[in-house]
User: What shape does this take?
Amino acid sequence: MNDVIITSELTKVYGKTIAVDSVNLQVKKSEVFGFLGLNGAGKTTAIRMLLGMVAPTRGESFILGEKVKAGNVGLWNHVGYMVETPYSYPELTVKENLEIVWKLRSMKDRNRVSWIMGLLELEKYASVKAKHLSLGNGQRLGIAKALIHRPEILILDEPTNGLDPAGIVEVRELLKSLAENEGVTILVSSHNLDEVSRMASNLGIIHNGRLVRRMDTVNLETELRKTLVVDGRQREFMKDVLLKNGYQASAIDGGCLELQEEEAIQHPDRIAEMLVAAGCPPTLLKVDRENLETYFLRLIQNGEKNHA
Ligand SMILES: Nc1ncnc2c1ncn2[C@@H]1O[C@H](COP(=O)(O)OP(=O)(O)OP(=O)(O)O)[C@@H](O)[C@H]1O
Assistant: This one.
């Protein structure tokens, strides 16, 4: 069995809102799968159904080959999860909160609490009450609770929410290492393509409840639009030269010219030679790559058009 998480036509309707619409996902063992979408796209609802917290209106999910349904208690020994803002007992310390999870999960190994505090760098907050933790450390405690029983499957809803840049890198590296070194399969939701593409090998993009795109992050780079940006002292003259030679040069922010032709992007040297020969040598010539968030929004808009 290669796909350890499967959703089949998973759908949730709340009144007139279709929160999740016929989502089919497959996540392979030891994969980090990024579930990407804007706020309100349907990520949390899909994850809640996957975890058996909300009953689907239609469709079903399977984890480790078992159907997710009420009463399937044994399955959750293999799954760790954190959905939205992690809940902790505010009056209890970090250590006490973790000890409660340790007891609830009927774990035998006494070292688990100190092990997980070490892994998430929570030792120095061991005696701090949960209500006094920063948002980021509260998030860290949530991840610690999800991981304390060393699950095979980890499902995290926006785990880097509230973390500072260093915390984001730490969580990202931790998740990558859990997948690579411990074989943990991770489904992680995010609204940030740049962030999630640094840890996930595969992505599913959800918009208005629909899975609009599945992709491999290795090939992401090739999907980004590229342009050749050109500048010089005689912009109008340069533009005329380029147009006469068949290039649709258009002005972008700051007044530089942008070329989208593949020939120009592949051979900027030819553009430089042409401009030099015409007497307007470029002062700037660079291939620009679309940023990931622009690409993400473009994908979503295309998804909307396709489903219109
Ligand atoms: N219990 C509920 N009752 C009614 N509508 C709901 C409920 N839960 C979610 N929705 C609606 O379903 C849609 C999807 O919400 P969901 O929380 O799953 O999105 P999300 O991608 O997780 O967004 P966010 O990142 O903001 O949490 C939204 O339109 C939301 O308002």
Residues 83 and 157 are 5 Å apart (CA to CA). Residues 14, 17, 19, 37, 39-45, 191 surround adenosine-5'-triphosphate (CB under 6 Å). The mean pLDDT is 90. The first strand starts at residue 3 and ends at 14.
